[in-house]
Amino acid sequence: MRGVDRILIVLAGLLLLLITQTIYLLNYRRQVKQISSQLSFIMEHDSRKRIVTQLKPKEIGRLVQDCNNLLSRQSAMGEQFSRKNQEMNLAVTSLSHDIRTPLTSLDGYLQLALRTEAEQEKERYVRLAQSRIQQIIKLVDELFLYTKLQNPEYSLELQPVDVMEVLKRNLFTFIDDFTRSGEEPELRLPEHSPRVMGELHALERIFTNIIGNYFIHGEGTLAIEVEDRQDVLGIRFTNRLKAGSRVDTEKIFTRFYKEDPSRTRHSSGLGLSIVKALMEKMNGHAEAGCTADTFSIRIGFSKRGEEHGHEHPSQG
Q: How far is Cα of residue 140 from the mean position of the Cα atoms in its chain?
């Protein structure tokens, strides 16, 4: 009987193990069904819910964690897409308004030019129409450049450039604007001409946009100071703000940012965002500072490769 008892005990143990395994497998299957059902609900209703289970075997717990991580990533991507879509809608609205304004005045000037008999008046309206055409060209050009700069694969061919020469040349192009304002720039430049790793046309656009921003939003004297350090050359542009002006230094380099969105001032709102993007393409940086009544922009260039400047002369 002892042998039979042992066999019965073994069989009972095997039966208990089989029942336990069956219950475990049924529970495993039930949890997989629950996960599938929750996933279907989340996908169908675009829900922010996450998958939960009452019992978590090791494999099920890992599956739930991976699914929730994937859902969190998908949710973040959805929010980013929604935010980008909203920004794009605002951008299209802003650009449509920016371009429509000079187009409307362009049409008006051309009609006036056609109706007037006096040659002097006709020439004046034609000149005004030409100025509006130039505004439109500038807006489209800035949008095209900004779009190119957003491509991670777009790069600039860097070489040592005499940055002081480029700065002085760009300041000279604004001589009429400085004359009309009655202000002369206050320059604190080094005696020697340091070279930076940059690209000529990018540098010209950077200086043009920064100085142009001063004439639109600033007043008083434009102070330009060069900070020449061992590896970095910094250039700071400082001016007073116009009375009532508000500047958000956290957003000033973002695309389509405008101090006052209701007034275009013939600006696309892309000028300083282009400055920042171009500086980053040249391994530099741009930052802004603001006090109660002053505003400053500082750009920093890398001077690496400066000693090879004679081997690779600057363009222009």
A: 18
